[in-house]
Design a protein that fits this description.
Helix 5 links the parallel strand 10 and strand 11 (203-208). The protein has helices spanning 44-50, 100-103, 153-156, 162-172, 188-199, 214-220, 231-236, 255-260, 281-286, 298-311, 324-335, and strands at residues 5-10, 19-24, 32-41, 66-74, 86-89, 92-94, 114-115, 136-140, 144-146, 180-184, 203-208, 224-227, 241-246, 261-269, 289-292, 317-321, 342-346. It is built from 11 helices and 17 strands. With 353 residues, it is an alpha/beta fold. The model has no long low-confidence stretch (mean pLDDT 96). Bound molecules: NADP nicotinamide-adenine-dinucleotide phosphate and zinc ion (ZN). NADP nicotinamide-adenine-dinucleotide phosphate binds next to helix 1, helix 4 and helix 5.
């Protein structure tokens, strides 16, 4: 199928306000699908990259990787989707299938990973992938996922990054009912992670620097709320956690959280501050494990969506019409830790679902 002119919202340079931006897409390949975007969540990774905090951002940059929409075209070899199907697209749209991690089924850790925006393309008209702050998105069908009917689009869109990113560490570390689990940071990722921990039967503790989030954290499933600014609360809970999942976007002093872990406990990081600093003493003394996780394998994305549909796990969202001004507003809310708990930009030409 031919190329399409796609209207989007882009950051023209690091930290600059959003502008309207139209690009000419790649032709639709035989294994690709085209999605008309109904809505797209706004992730802190969008902010990190709009400001080029990690380096490597290419401008104009069209962020947005929590996409839900309907299929408007399928390539000639696509069998698993038809026009009109409701699908989700996550931050990842490609894997090489040959590297060690792909062969282990950990395609989310592919060394040649392709992201849905800011990845280089060999195309004369579309030099990079562009994300979901847009009217349409094209991607390989194998990286589009059926959205179960039980999940409403606006509240489910954040599952496509915040949800799947926090799901994967529970799988990686075989986290089971009865374990004491701390979710560090109650933001976009954290408020969904609290729900996973609770529904999996863990003793769930919110570890938050924002005391005003206590009541909501408990609604999301926290059995306890521990204010990370209160040294006494941290000390009282020392050596009691099996597993802590960090979703924090800033470099903080990590030592207190190492203190919270039991011997041989695990701190799994998905939050991506520019750097992390900590005293190694507790890691060495208690034989702790500090590890990380990127996004989620294709297999587990489908498992995550099915679990969410079965257990009613969705995001608490604020919806805004998708405009340049609202892209800026969403970024500002994230920057000021004011999103409650995920901003979702909605293309208003769609019926609410
Ligand atoms: P978010 O909504 O802004 O939430 C981050 C939370 O971190 C805040 O709500 C806050 O929680 C806590 N926090 C922020 N600054 C802090 C500070 N200075 N001190 C203490 N706590 C602070 O962000 P998000 O969208 O959930 O994303 C979180 C991080 O995950 C980002 O770095 C993002 O890039 C990363 N990420 C990684 C992956 C992956 O695959 N690994 C995928 C998606 C996102 P409290 O108010 O409760 O303290
Ligand atoms: Zn994200």
């Amino acid at each position: 199928m031919s190329r399409r002119e796609i209207k989007a919202f882009a950051v023209p340079a690091a930290g600059a306000p959003f502008q309207e931006f139209t690009y000419t897409s790649t032709p639709l390949g035989p294994k690709d699908v085209e999605v008309k975007i109904e809505c797209c969540g706004v992730c802190h990774s969008d902010l990190h990259q709009a400001k080029n905090e990690w380096g490597g951002a290419n401008y104009p940059l069209v962020p947005g990787h929590e996409i839900i929409g309907r299929i408007t075209a399928v390539g000639s070899e696509v069998t698993e989707f038809k026009v009109g199907d409701r699908v989700g697209v996550s931050p990842q749209i490609g894997h090489c299938k040959t590297c060690n991690m792909c062969q282990k089924g950990l395609d989310n850790h592919c060394r040649n990973i392709m992201f849905n925006y800011n990845s280089k393309l060999n195309d004369e008209k579309q030099p990079f992938t562009y994300g979901g702050f847009a009217e349409y998105h094209r991607c390989p069908a194998e990286w589009a996922f059926h959205i179960p009917d039980a999940l409403p689009s606006h509240a489910a869109a954040p599952l496509l990054c915040a949800g799947l990113t926090t799901w994967m560490p529970f799988v990686n570390h075989n986290i089971k009912a009865g374990m004491k689990v701390g979710i560090l940071g109650v933001g976009g990722l954290g408020h969904i992670a609290l729900q996973w921990a609770n529904k999996l039967g863990c003793h769930t503790v919110a570890l938050s620097s924002s005391p005003d989030k206590e009541a909501e954290a408990k609604k999301f499933g926290a059995h306890e709320f521990l204010c990370t600014k209160d040294q006494k609360q941290i000390e009282a809970a020392a050596d009691t956690f099996d597993f802590i999942l960090s979703t924090v976007s800033a470099d903080i002093d990590w030592t207190p959280y190492l203190v919270l872990l039991k011997p041989e406990g695990v701190l799994a990081c998905v939050g991506l501050p520019v750097k992390m600093s900590f005293r190694p003493g507790p890691i060495i003394n208690k034989k702790l494990v500090i590890t990380g996780s990127l996004l989620c394998s294709r297999k587990e994305i489908q498992n995550m969506l099915n679990f969410a549909a079965q257990h009613g796990v969705v995001a608490a969202v604020e919806t805004l019409p998708m405009t340049a001004a609202n892209c800026d507003l969403a970024m500002k809310k994230l920057e000021e830790n004011k999103a409650r708990y995920r901003v979702v930009l909605v293309n208003e030409n769609f019926d609410k679902n």
